[in-house]
Each structure stands twice: as structure tokens, then as C-alpha cells.
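chain below, 340 aa
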Amino acid sequence: MVPRPPRPSHPEQRAGRILVSRTDRLGDVVLTLPLCGLLKARGHRVIFLGRAYTRPALEACDEVDEIVEWDDALPRADARALVAGARADVVLHVKPHAGVAWAAFQARVPLRVGTSRRAFHWLLCNRLEPIARRDSPLHEAQLNVRLARALLDAEALALGPERLARYGRLRARVPVPDALRPLVARDRFTLVIHPRSGGSAAEWPLGHWAALARALPPERFRLLVTGSRAEGEALRPWLDAQPPHVHDVTGRTDGRELLALLAAADGFVAASTGPLHAAAALGTRTLGLFSPRRPIHPGRWAPIGARAEVLVGDGHASSAEDLAAIAPERVAARVLAWSG
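prediction:
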């Protein structure tokens, strides 16, 4: 028989310093920001423990007061000192990570909260929450909030994804680079497309992206292809074959500049990627392309924001085939409707 999680050994927390630990990818971090907003709205100071490459998104969120950069290569003593330096009253292990859990335990953070579904949390945390993500009907942003049950009221815990989006907005902190500014001029509708996912999700076929470009009239649209420098090199033959109104901007922005570009654009289309979630949080019109299968379906991972939408492929043998079933004409129809 599985033992019940231990009851909290600490009283209900007053306003304090909350260390939110999410050391994975950009999209996961963006969907954790509504939790930060809820905590800040209740008087807490929010310190975010994340990877260095997610810092631009964290800096773009007013709900994060301090940023601590985690590195898996840190020796255990240095990791403990890093976490101790945050002077946190509470650590929320939103992303289970044994190294972070050990560091928080050794740093003697008073309240250490983790999911009951990780064995190391039973040893290293003093409050466990029974959160099962894989088969949950809840959105990722809602699951993140559930971990902070000890710090939030019932109203906050009951918020849906649309309401939660208001607590995790992003604001670009730098301007669009001068070299790219003409590409977001108001003479045409600027659509940013992000064909690759960095291995984090199924991808829409390149042939579909090319068909989308052909379906959008060049006199009305300008398409910008984003991605890393390595992704741009891998896409080179495809990029070279695109019509003149498709512009390659892969590898031409850092994280802060990419957020500025997404904020200045009129629309954004991608599969389930970090930039998709960032664009939605910036308030840009956003269309996500998803498979219906669990646990990667939009009920769990849809971008959240007032101007975010999704299209879902029919169920097939694989998630890649699910996305391929989303016809370019369906995507083009949504984008054309955006442009009026």
C-alpha cells in the first residue's frame, strides 16, 4: 500500500520569499509564470531558479523579482550555497530535480514542497502534493499552481488557463534589432513561423510550411522564419527554395531580441514550442499546431493568452502524422482571417 503524503510540518505561510524551481525548457518556464503572478499578488517575493537560457523570458515578466541560474555541473557544496543565497522561506519544486531538492534540503529551506510522485521528494521535502501530470485533465499552468496549494486560496487554485494567463504576461525589454526592423514594418502583415521544435515536440512537415507561404499573398504578407543558427543551417535547402516574401532570420537574434521580434509581429504559428508560449504571453496572435494524443494534447499544453488559438490534427499512428493531418489550407484560413 502506498503511504499517504505527510501533512505539512509548517503553519500556513505569511508573505515571504518563495523560490520557484523550474529548470527545464522555455515553454515550461513560461507556463510557470502564472504561478509566480499569483504568489506575487498575495504579497510574496518570487525568486525563480531556472536555466541561463530562459533568463530573457524571466526578465520579461514583472512577476519575477529575482533570478537564480541553475547549472547541473555545480558541485554539491556550490549548489547548496546557490540555493542558500536565495534566502527562501519556501521552495516549490515545480520541475522535480534531485540535485535541486538536495541543495534545498542541505540549505535548510524551511518549507520544501514537491510532488509525491518522486521518491527523492519523500526524503528531501517536508510537504508533498499528490500531483500526477501525465494523465491529468488539467492544463500545465493549472498543475503548476496546484503545487502551491499551501500558499494559495481556493479561488486561485480553481482558475482556468484563460484566467491564469493574466498573471504570467511578458513584456519585451529591448527593441527589435535595427537590421530586422524593416521586416516588421506596418506595410504588410508580419507572420513569424517557427518550423523546428528543438526536439521537444512533433513538427509540422516542411512541405506544409511551404504551402502556407504560397497561400499567403506576398503583397499582403511577410513571413519570418525563426530558429537557432543550427536549425537555420539544417533548413538551408528549404529556406533557399522559398519565395521572396519569406525571410530567414534564424540565428539572428538572442533571447531578448527574439521576444522583441515576437512582440512586434502581427502573428505567430508553430507546433508546441517554447517560442509559441512566449508569443502568446506577449499578447501576439498565436496559432499552435497540436496532436490530440495524451500527454501532448492542447488540453495540457495549449498556449495561453487572450489572442492564442490552436488547431488539432486527427488521431493517427503517431504524433507526427497527427500534425501532418492539419492541412496548410486550414492554417492559411486562420492567418488570412487575422489580417482582415
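The domain at 17-167 is CATH 3.40.50.2000 (Rossmann fold). Residues 16 and 243 are 55 Å apart (CA to CA).
thats it, cya
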